[in-house]
Structure formats: C-alpha cells, structure tokens
Write a structure and sequence with these properties.
The chain is an alpha/beta fold. The protein is built from 6 helices and 14 strands. Helices cover 21% and strands 29% of the residues.
C-alpha cells in the first residue's frame, strides 16, 4: 500500500507491502474524494484461535464509527462508504484491542478517487501503561466477567480521551497485566515475564504471529520517527499485586521505576514525563512519587512530575474484572488534560 496517501497513528510499521498494526490505538487516517473506499485487513494467526483473542478494529467516516468488527478470517475487506456521486470524507481506521492477544495489518485501501493524508497535529503524547490504558473490559460493565478483545476499546479509555481533548496525536504502549517489576499475580509470587520495560523499545509484544513469521517483540522501534511532547506513564496497578505490604518489594519497585524513567528519557530527550497512578488503587502512589523524586535527584532532570488519580468510585460502576468504566475514564481524562496543560506551561 502507498503510505504517502495516509496519515499514520501510533507505532505502525510497513511490512511486506502491508501496514502492520499491533498496539492499542494504532491505525491510519486520510481524506478521500470518490464514490467508495474499501480497506483490506490481514489477521495474524489468532484469527483461527479462541474468539476472545481476535483483533478488534473500527472504521470511522467523518468521526462516526461505521464498522466495528473482530477479524475472524485471514483477510477481511470492509467498505467504509459507497455513493452514487463522488464525495469527500475523512476516514480513520483504529485498532481497538491490544497487541498481546493479536495484531493485524492493512494490505490495501482501494478507491476510485483521490486520497490525501489526515492527522499530523502539532502535538504528540505517548502513553505507557497496562490494561487501564488499553480500555480493558470497558464495553462490559459486569465486574465478574473476564477479558475479551470484543469488550476492549481503547477509544473509551482515559488516554485516547485525553489526546482528543488536547487535539493531539498519540502513541500508546500498553499491555494488560504488565508492570514495572512484576506482572499481575494472584499468588504474591513475582511474574517477571510481563514487564513493560522489556518491550518499550520494541514495536510491541504479542503471542500471535503475523504473516506466519513476525512478532512485534522482535522489531526495534525507531524513536527518531517523531518525538513526543509529553510522555504519560501509568504503571503500578499490576505491580501492587506483588509488592503488597513488603517494604523490600516497594523499594524494588521504586528502583525499577527509576531505571525505566532513564530508559524513557534516553529515547525521548525533550518530552515532559508525567507519572500517574491511582485509578484502580492508590496504594503505590507514594512509591511513584518517591521514584520521581529519586530520579530527579540522580539525574538533575526537572522535566518530570507526578500526578495521582482518584480511585474509581462504586457509584461509577465497574467493568470486567473490576476495571474502570467509561465514566471513570472520562473523569481521569479531564484531570489529566488539565495537568498536561499545566506541565506544558512550565
């Protein structure tokens, strides 16, 4: 496909005449003038696995979601619009689900008219996080239900909402269950193979395989493509299941957080780094604040700050596995939007 005709969203990668989309929120957007636009998607090998892991994608025409589907076969062709006479529309394609369970690609965008890239806003925000950033379960407001890509929608989560409120481009690096020093654990034992720092400098991470041989964790991300103005880190909810009340583990978390901040700064030289936590529990918020202070002391870097979210409220409901509802995400986005505005004035 011709990448000159589309604006790229997030960490996408050209690969074998396709555009590979792995992480939450990745996609393309373009203006098209013609009588139709069709988009051909390629699924990775998860299409034939369990339905709960299939890639979920959406197509928008003039900001209206016209298609929302799971990729349940190797190739899926979607018509964004069709008309008798040429029309001009803004078309946006968004991968709603996260990379860990499945990835996908765009092999062709067909039209009888002309396409030009959209997007390219003046600001860029990178969001680094876990299931909260991914929008885990936000389409299923039953706390006793569990994960499914069909109920995961990044556009209803706080990060996407914040970028839209600020009229900024975004990039997201987020994986459900992942942390700084441990992934989510139900036993108190460390889960050391589910760490965001291990994959931050990669295209992403997935259990699926694209085009029978590619996985995003084998692809190094080129940070020189575009540097963000702000990096928002929301990590610690899963670590807390390991840290609990152990002081040595809390120190391990702070130390690991400081090390990760140095990695983030190495790759994003001028961005303001904003560390946040608290939407699914505030227990580790003091540790995040301590990590920010230690990092500033060790490096002299002052373009960094901490902000705490309020814990989700029972009256706002709970989504699958006790995750935030869109109401909670909306409140968080409003607070984060104002904080980013303050940071950028410093």
């Amino acid at each position: 496909m011709n990448l000159k005709n589309v604006g790229l969203i997030g960490r996408v990668m050209p690969l074998e005449d396709t555009l590979w989309m792995a992480l939450s929120g990745t996609g393309v957007e373009f203006f098209v003038t013609g009588t139709f636009a069709r988009i051909a998607f390629l699924a990775d090998d998860t299409w034939c696995g369990i339905p709960e892991n299939r890639a979920r994608v959406a197509v928008y025409v003039d900001e209206e979601r016209v298609v929302d589907t799971l990729l349940d076969k190797p190739e899926t062709v979607i018509t964004a619009f069709k008309s008798e006479e040429p029309e001009t529309h803004l078309v946006r394609v968004i991968k709603l689900s996260e990379s860990a369970m499945s990835t996908c690609g765009i092999s062709e965008i067909e039209t009888d008219g002309e396409m030009v890239p959209a997007g390219g806003k003046s600001g860029l925000i990178e969001f680094i996080g876990d299931s909260i950033t991914c929008g885990y379960g936000v389409d299923d407001e039953d706390r006793d239900h569990h994960f499914a890509t069909a109920t995961e929608d990044v556009t209803r989560a706080f990060a996407y909402k914040t970028a839209r409120a600020l009229e900024a481009d975004y990039s997201m690096v987020s994986f459900s269950g992942y942390g700084i020093v441990s992934g989510y654990t139900g036993t108190g034992e460390k889960v050391g193979n589910q760490l965001v720092p291990d994959y931050y400098e990669k295209l992403g991470f997935s259990y699926g395989t694209y085009r029978d041989k590619y996985q995003p964790q084998t692809m190094v991300w080129d940070f020189s493509k575009r540097q963000p103005d702000v990096v928002v880190i929301n990590l610690g909810t899963n670590d807390m299941s390991y840290v609990l009340d152990y002081e040595d583990r809390r120190e391990e978390y702070v130390t690991g957080y400081v090390a990760f901040l140095k990695t983030v700064r190495k790759n994003n030289r001028t961005a303001w780094i904003l560390c946040v936590l608290g939407m699914m529990g505030e227990a580790l918020c003091p540790a995040v604040e301590a990590a920010v202070k230690r990092y500033k002391t060790e490096t002299g870097d002052t373009k960094i700050s901490y902000m705490g979210f309020s814990d989700q409220l029972p009256e706002d409901g709970y989504a699958a596995d006790w995750h935030p509802t869109e109401t909670t995400h909306r409140k968080a986005a409003q607070k984060l939007t104002e904080e980013i505005k303050r940071c950028m004035k410093r």
